[in-house]
Amino acid sequence: MDPLSTVIALLRPHAALSKPITARGDWGVRYAAYGMPGFAMVVEGGGWLTLAAGDPVRLEAGDFVLLPVTPAFDMASRPGMACVPVEPSGQALRHGDPDGAPDFRMLGGSFRVDPANAALVSALLPGMIHVRSALHDTTGLSRVLGLILEETAGDRPGAGMILERLLEVMLIAALRHHGIDGGSRATGLLGGMRDPGVAKALQALHANVGDRWTVARLAAIACMSRSAFAARFTQTVGCAPIEYLARWRMALAKDALSRGGISLDRLAEEIGYESASAFSTAFRRHAGCPPGGFARSRRSARGRPAAARIPS
Question: ∠ at Cα 157 (151, 163), nearest 5°?
Answer without folding.
Answer: 35
